[in-house]
Each structure stands twice: as structure tokens, then as C-alpha cells.
């Protein structure tokens, strides 16, 4: 079972063992991973995140948020050799046909579309080991170059200290150091599928648990993780086996690794932190992480046909939970889905609109990620021309501010500026955003442009969330907006 456990973490193997499923008195043999080359496989992927920071808010439940997404991925293995495989994934942010519930409740799809725009690609090709774990990304240089152009406002960015002040360059530097972060961001499914695949045949006994351990690095802290594998069932007719994996991080070591995160959380809720009792403070300083996975594996070629994963992290008395379900479309579903993935009605957070990273650098990566609608087709030219007169009639509006506070976002776990308009300002902003749909706008504070978002949907509740820039800059904007008579001006971009 050792080589089954290691599959998510060992990257290089030097031999390939092909085998066929076989039952024996000692258990069942799961063959080594041997997918057919040149055959495209389609996968239905569903994801969700749940965030609960109720402990830190005066109104319990007010900070609990859920986001979800649904995607269709296509994967082909063009080639393989004795050392590894070459895999190509085709990516899309579009909702698959027949997805349950309203499209607006799938906000991960909007974020994923933004990611594809940032990386400038809808296809990833990379080398894997013989289990399917990503090993080397192709065309990483082109992706990084595209990100640099975007971070520089569309111009090639060979250098320049001003441009490097943009937060986008921190992300680019991390990707340059480890290009596989792109795979983790765009195709995390590849790693989850690889969890159920072994480069060599494995014999497992029904119901018998196999336990192994390893260390994971969290910010320089080695955290022991215990993994338990179990063969739950087999289906001779379908030619599949269902496996379960449970993982738990050592509580003391994981708590130690999370202390900087916890300290940041406490500083963000300083007044609340001052009122904590000794028992509450001890609870806040504890952290835990566990992972539960079920996998349906083919007894013909050792490939993962379906996977369901739940990861739960509790730190600083805040709980973050992620759900992932992957199903190969040519195979029937066997695993139960969490209700959050199938609910017709789902309360989702308002993602708001994103600001420029800095007034010094001009348009930057956050603006470029807010991609404009596709240009009109030839058949729409006359309608677009007629629309120009209407655009000119959309006058700038001045919006009175009711409150402006910098707080930690329970969605992105980063700081954001939460702006609430007065009722009159909210009504004016609603009318403006409805009239400006599909157009690029500008928001000004004290006559300075702070962002240039494309207006994709009307904003009805009078709330604006600015995120993705330096906390000190956000706090400075908040102070400006707290001044008596402070107003925000929004207009079409000239």
C-alpha cells in the first residue's frame, strides 16, 4: 500500500508495470495506470468552498459564505514512454449544459474566466510521472510573458521599478520559481485524479486499512500527515473498485505552522481579540486540517474514473471547507455528491469590483483580468453605432458614502475596503450600472481614478468591495471616504 499512498507526493518513477485486474484469496489486484494514448476523455467537475468566520463577527452566521463552480474539462494523453507521459488539458469557464440552479450562483466560473485571461491560455500541456502527477509544464515562458505584459498595462515589461510595485509581479515571481503553480491553479483535477492512480499493480484486501505517514512543509514547518487507505467495494460488472483515503495533519505541528495566519486574523479583529477569554484565546490558537477522498478506479487500466474530495481547515476559530467532485463523462456516477454542489438555490457572496493596484502604475493586472465583452459582429455594427449616442447620454454620478471600512475578506482571506453608499447613492449607482452594462467605467475618489472596471452586471445593494491592493492604500482610501461630505464619482471611461 506504500506506493498507493505516495502517489500524490512522489514525482519520479523509472519503470512501468502493466497488469490486468484479478481477484484472489488475498484480495483484489488494481492494475498499474496505463491509459490509452490519443484518446480524449471528458470530465465533469464540480467545486465549492464554504467559509465560516462567525466567531469573529457580532452577528453569528453573517460571515458564512459559500461559492461554487461547475466545469467541463477535456484531457488527452498524446504520448508516453518508460519515464512518464505528456498530457494535454483543454479548459473552459463555461457552465456545462444541464447544471443545476441559477448561473449567478456559480461565481467560481467568473473567477476561473479571470484566471484564464490572466494566464492567456485555454490549454495546458505538461509532463507527468507514471501516476499522472504533473512534473514539467510546457510553454511556461509564454504564459509568464503574457502575465508580464498584462501587469505592465499591455506593454512588454522587461523591468522598471514602478511596474514591479504592482502586486501582480509577486504572483509572477512565484510562478517563475515554480511553474507547476499554474497547473495547480488551472487544473487541480490532474492531481486529484492522480491520487487514485499507481504506476504499478497493487493488491488490496477488502476493508483492511493501510496506514502510512509523510511530512508536508507549511511555511518552513514540517507537519506530519497520517494517511489511511481502504478498499471499500468492487464492482465486477463495471470493472471498478472504490477506495477511500483519509488524511489528518498533526494538530500540534499544524497549529504551529498557522500562527502567522492566526496573528494576522487577530490583528484584523483587534477589538474582538481584546475581549477573548483565556479558553477562547487557546481555541483561537489551535488549528487542524483533514482530508477525505473517495475514488472509483478502473480495473481495466488503473485510471481514476470518479473522485470526491472534502478538505477542512480550521484556524483561528475560522473554518474553511472545499468540495471537489470529478466524474469521467463516459462512466456512470457512483459516489454521492454533497448538497452544496447540487442545490438549486445557493446564497453567494458579492464579489464586488476590483481596483487598480496602484495609481502610479496606470492600468494593471487587475483591470486586465476584468475582460471586456467580445467585440460586436458585423451584423451588430448598426446597433452598436446607434448605441454610441446612448452611451454619451450616460452622465457621471456622484455617490454619497455611508460607511467605509477595511476588513478581512472571508472569501479571499485578504483585506478589502467595504464601501456602503447612502440610500440615495445606492439608487443612483444602481441606475448607472444598469445603463452602463457592457462598458468600461471609472471610479474616482478626490478626482483620482482608483479603478476602471468593466460593468458586467448591475449593482443593486449599494455596496462596493475594493480588494487586491495594498492594505495601507485601502486604509488611506477609507480615511478619505470617512471625511464629511465625502463622495465617489463614477463615469464611463473617456
UniProtKB/TrEMBL annotation:
Listed InterPro entries: SecDF_P1_head
Pfam families tied to this protein: SecDF_P1_head
Coiled-coil positions: none
Residues annotated as domain SecDF P1 head subdomain: 401-483
Keywords linked to the UniProt accession: Signal
Signal sequence extent: 1-24
Organism superkingdom: Bacteria
The keyword Signal is annotated on this UniProt entry: yes
Gene3D superfamilies attached to this UniProt entry: 3.30.1360.200
Name of this protein: SecDF P1 head subdomain domain-containing protein
Amino acid at each position: 500500500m506504500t506506493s498507493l499512498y505516495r502517489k500524490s507526493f512522489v514525482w519520479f518513477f523509472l519503470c512501468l508495470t502493466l497488469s490486468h485486474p484479478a481477484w484472489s484469496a488475498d484480495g483484489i489486484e488494481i492494475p498499474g495506470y496505463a491509459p490509452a494514448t490519443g484518446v480524449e476523455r471528458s470530465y465533469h467537475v464540480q467545486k465549492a468552498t464554504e467559509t465560516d468566520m462567525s466567531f469573529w463577527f457580532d452577528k453569528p452566521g453573517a460571515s458564512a459564505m459559500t461559492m461554487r463552480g461547475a466545469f467541463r474539462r477535456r484531457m488527452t494523453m498524446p504520448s508516453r514512454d518508460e519515464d512518464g507521459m505528456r498530457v494535454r488539458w483543454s479548459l473552459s469557464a463555461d457552465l456545462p449544459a444541464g447544471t443545476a440552479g441559477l448561473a449567478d450562483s456559480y461565481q467560481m466560473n467568473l473567477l476561473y474566466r479571470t484566471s484564464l485571461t490572466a494566464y492567456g491560455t485555454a490549454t495546458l500541456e505538461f509532463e507527468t510521472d507514471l501516476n499522472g502527477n504533473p512534473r514539467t509544464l510546457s510553454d511556461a515562458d509564454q504564459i509568464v510573458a503574457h502575465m508580464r505584459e498584462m501587469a505592465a498595462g499591455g506593454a512588454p515589461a522587461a523591468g522598471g521599478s514602478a511596474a514591479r510595485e504592482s502586486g501582480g509581479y509577486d504572483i509572477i515571481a512565484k510562478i517563475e520559481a515554480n511553474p507547476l503553480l499554474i497547473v495547480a491553479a488551472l487544473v487541480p483535477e490532474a492531481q486529484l485524479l492522480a491520487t487514485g492512480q499507481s504506476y504499478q499493480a497493487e493488491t488490496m484486501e477488502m476493508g483492511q486499512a493501510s496506514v502510512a505517514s509523510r511530512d508536508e512543509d507549511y511555511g518552513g514547518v514540517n507537519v506530519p500527515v497520517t494517511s489511511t487507505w481502504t478498499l471499500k467495494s468492487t464492482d465486477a460488472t463495471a470493472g471498478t473498485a472504490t477506495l477511500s483515503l483519509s488524511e489528518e495533519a498533526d494538530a500540534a505541528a499544524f497549529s504551529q505552522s498557522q500562527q502567522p495566519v492566526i496573528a494576522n486574523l487577530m490583528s484584523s479583529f483587534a477589538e474582538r481579540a481584546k475581549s477573548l477569554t483565556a479558553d477562547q484565546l487557546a481555541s483561537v490558537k489551535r488549528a487542524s486540517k483533514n482530508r477525505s477522498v473517495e475514488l472509483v478506479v478502473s480495473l481495466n487500466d488503473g485510471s481514476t474514473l470518479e473522485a470526491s474530495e472534502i478538505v477542512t481547515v480550521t484556524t483561528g476559530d475560522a473554518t474553511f471547507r472545499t468540495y471537489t467532485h470529478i466524474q469521467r463523462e463516459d462512466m456512470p456516477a457512483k459516489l454521492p455528491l454533497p448538497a452544496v454542489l447540487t442545490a438549486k438555490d445557493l446564497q453567494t457572496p458579492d464579489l464586488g469590483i476590483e481596483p487598480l493596484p496602484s495609481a502610479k502604475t496606470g492600468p494593471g493586472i487587475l483591470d486586465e483580468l476584468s475582460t471586456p465583452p467580445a467585440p460586436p459582429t458585423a451584423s451588430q455594427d448598426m446597433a452598436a453605432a446607434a448605441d454610441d449616442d446612448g452611451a454619451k447620454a450616460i452622465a457621471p454620478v456622484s455617490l454619497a458614502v455611508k460607511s467605509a471600512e477595511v476588513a478581512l475578506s472571508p472569501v479571499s482571506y485578504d483585506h478589502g475596503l467595504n464601501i456602503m453608499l447612502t440610500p440615495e447613492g445606492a439608487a443612483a449607482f444602481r441606475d448607472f450600472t444598469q445603463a452602463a452594462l457592457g462598458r468600461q467605467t471609472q471610479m474616482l475618489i478626490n478626482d483620482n481614478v482608483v479603478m476602471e472596471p468593466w460593468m458586467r452586471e448591475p449593482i443593486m445593494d449599494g455596496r462596493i468591495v475594493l480588494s487586491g491592493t495594498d492594505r495601507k492604500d485601502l486604509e488611506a482610501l477609507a480615511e478619505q471616504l470617512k471625511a464629511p461630505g465625502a463622495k465617489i464619482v463614477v463615469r464611463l471611461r473617456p
